[in-house]
Amino acid sequence: MRLAALAAGLLLPMMTHRFSGLFTSTVLLLFGAAGVAFGLMPWVIRLAWRIDAIDRPDARRVHAEPTPRIGGVAIFCAVNLTLLLNFDYSLALKGATISATVVACLSLWDDLRPLSAAVKLLVQSVALLFLMLCGIHADLGNSLWWWPLEFVITALWMIGITNAFNFLDGINGLAGWLAVVVSLLMGLLAWHTDQEYMLKLCFAVAGGALGFLPDNARYRAPARTFMGDVGSTYLGWIMAAIALMGDWSSEGVVKSYSAPLLIFSVMIFDMIYTTVARIARGDVRTLRQWIEYVGRDHLHHRLMDMGCSQAASVVMITAFTLLMGLAALAIIKSSLFATWLLLAQAVVFYGVLSFLMLQRR
């Protein structure tokens, strides 16, 4: 079955040109990437055992058995192969996939053989610069005077979303389902606004994450693999790049930036909440401590402390993301007043969620 899925996954991207409808042909990329990821996973799992890329249980982790942690390799191989075999690329699509692959490989190497902070910063900076040269960056205007500020905003967004997504990779299925939902939401926006290459990238990413889930989102049996930092880094980076790649609205800054912020708002909320809480407790005092600190205080941990199972926590957080994503879809056709109302609704929602989380400290 795995070989059949792999073969079908490699074949489907080459068949997209036979279909006239953009949405129909792009759906083939989703199933193609899912097939490749699902088909490659047994080989990636065997490789993990061979090179000892294994997560072993400890007091911080919720799993009970040693588990391979490089399942993300199959995800980025699936996405990249699917797009490559489609033989239709834009400069922005190349920038997003190549830069995401570079930072994912850096993460994999650092996981197996730790690198110095200087080396990691250098490689990440090169990947970020390459991304911007491919046209993916915060757009503040045509003047060169804005370029330094655009670089800073782009860097903060890319690093922030990548880390926020990594923080939520804490229980089986959560990161995978979030990647599927977020990518499909951005894909629907891309389809609605006729952004062909963004649509292809979104559906390929969703497919890669979907093909990973059968080996990870298991609640009655141990997960066969985790995506690991290599997977969460790749998915976080490429989804953040897609958000910058998209032309969300031509009706002003508020609507243009509100849509991606709402889609990513669950990740952003979790990162801000845990950061503020850790600083308040005195657990984090420097940027390095913030990056390296690990604890059981994320949104999924809080939900489990409230009595939710792993599966229920995944469903709830995914539902929160879908709820905010539907609001983002509504913004595209809404008036400016309605946009502000939807943003106010999100603020109230996260205010209530913060209150509930504080009650369980």
Q: Secondary structure elements and their pairing?
A:
Layout (H helix, E strand, L loop, with lengths): L1 H10 L10 H29 L3 E2 L11 E2 L3 H15 L4 H22 L4 H17 L13 H21 L6 H19 L3 H17 L15 H18 L7 H11 L1 H17 L5 H6 L6 H7 L4 H23 L3 H24 L2
Strand content of the residues, in percent?
under 5%
Average residue-wise pLDDT: 89
Give the biggest sheet: 2 strands, antiparallel
Low-pLDDT windows of residues:
none
Q: Give me the oligomer status.
A: single chain
Determine the number of helices (DSSP H or I, runs of at least 4 residues).
15
What number of domains?
2
Helix/strand order, N-terminal first:
HHEEHHHHHHHHHHHHH
Number of strands: 2
Distance between the first and last residues' Cα: 46 Å
- Range of helix content: over 70%
Strands of the biggest beta sheet: in what spatial order?
Answer: 1-2
Quick one: overall form? globular
Secondary structure class reads mainly alpha
- Work out the radius of gyration: 20 Å
